[in-house]
Structures are given as C-alpha cells and as structure tokens.
Amino acid sequence: MTLIRPDVPRVRFASPPLALVLCQVQFEPILRISDPAFIAQFQDAVRTEYPSVGRVGGVELAFGSEGLKAEPTTSGAWSFGSSDGQWQLVLAPEALTLQSPKHESYELLRDRFIAVLRAFVELVEPGARTRLGLRYVNRIAFDDAHSVARWRELVRPELLGLAGTSELAEDDAIRHAFGQVRFVQDESQMFVRYGFMESGMAHHPDVGISETPYFLLDLDHFDVRRMTSIDIEQIAAELDAFHDDIHRVFRWAISAEAAERFGVEELRPVEVAAEVSK
Hints:
This protein is of the alpha+beta class. It has one domain. The protein is 23% helix and 35% strand. The chain contains 5 helices and 11 strands. A hairpin with a 2-residue loop joins strand 8 (177-185) and strand 9.
C-alpha cells in the first residue's frame, strides 16, 4: 500500500525545479572508514565515476586561552565528486549518501546509488542497516511570482496556510508562510516541508540562498527500521516506492499552469534497474 493517496500518471519534466536530490543509507558505525589506508580500496572502486576525493570538513568548538574558538576539523567522512561536478558521493562512518543539484531522471539517481552501494557492501561488509531515505528539495521560482497572490494560482491553497487568503492582511504584508507535515504508515514515513519563502531565505545548507522569492517543496521519504543487513534488491524496491509517493505529492501540490511551465515531456512507467538484477 502506498503512503500517499492521489493516483497520478508518471511524467517527466523538461525543467524540474530541483535544488537538491539525495539518496542515503545509514548503518551501524564503522570507525575504520575514517582511515585513509582503509578507504583506498573504495576509492579505487568508484574512481571512474567519481575521480575527485577529499575530506568532509566541519567546525569544532573548543575553549582556549582566548575563550571559545571555532576550529576547522574533519568529520571522518569522505567526499567523492564526478568529473562534471553534478554528483557528490559522501561516505561517512555511519552513512553512504549520493546527492546532486539536479539529475536527468529518478532512474539515473537510483542506478548510480545502487552501483556505489554494491561496491560499498562488497568491500566494506557493513552490518545492520538503520535508515534508508530519498529526499527531493524543490525550489520553485518564476519571474512573475514575487507575491503570495500569484502563488495562490500556482500551488494548492492548502500549502499556503493563513497566507492562502487575502482576508487577514494585504498581500504585500505577507513575507513568508512555512509549514511541515509528517506522514506515517507502518515502516514508511515522509516529512513534507513547504511554503512561500521571501528572497534571502535559506532552507538547506547544500542549497544556496535565493535572490528572488520562491516556493519550497521539500519531500523527505524514509524508513528507520533496523535491518540486520543491507539488502540491495530490497533497497532498490523501497526507493522505487519512495519516489512514487514523492511524485504523487509533487503532482498534487502544483497547479496545471505550474506543471505546464516545467514542461511535461512524456508519460512512462518506473523502469526496473538492470544493475539490481545482476
């Protein structure tokens, strides 16, 4: 049973409003992943697709003679980038993540993730799986949509909350309207974060600040059950189900005018990844 009700046809958009898409599996911590000598084999396995490599940095707060100071530090995670700069693979002691600011299709994202996950499982032999997630952060912006009044015509009014009506205040007085809903069904969960955002507002650290007003639609589908192992075929099937629900929410949320602006290219069923069947 799907989590989201509306049954909509699967379409592909010529210009989707994606700001970030990521796929992640979490597992019981493997501390040796932070060791450069250990990670060399994994780098060799993914180097063809992700040739650049580096440490993932962070900030650590420490007390010294001059008081509290923020010192740069490494998190124990490794980042591998594609040659075109469109894909970033991050391997941390407790998670494997693939992300991109855009992609051609969900199937491409899934197949890329399954390929690196297969290499990871073969080389690292992780233990239990603790979380699986698929997240689409959409930042919808149009040249003629700078006020909340215009967004009432482009997205479902339910997504604007109190800003969905002009009865409470003048439209120009409404600067942003933000909401969040959590859906749960057995093992499946989805956070939907949405809202009309003014320019200069940021939502995710890997997504830059917008210079114009926009509508946020952040769809985060995940499963937090603890699995005794990482099953490639099961993960592929779950990701397909996650994406189906995400697509249903997105199609429900936007108006016919917005969908037309994104450019509906074709109708097609979800394809089965050839890599998974190997």
